[in-house]
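Sequence in, structure out. Go.
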Amino acid sequence: MAATDHSKRIAEIDAILQSGARSVSTDGLSISYDFEALERERRQLLAEDEANRMRRPVASNIYLGGF
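Output:
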């Protein structure tokens, strides 16, 4: 099974959301963004993305600073 990596699309969505522009017009081409849909897509991609998965949290620590 191939590992899924959605890093490129996640970065694109982050750039759109950080710009704050809901619509862009360039050379007669107009694009409107639905921020709520983009945020849902970003959450879904992060959940599916195997490249960004973190390791399991540490269950316990042993503090040896007193020795």
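Check: The chain has two helices and two strands. The chain has a mean pLDDT of 83.
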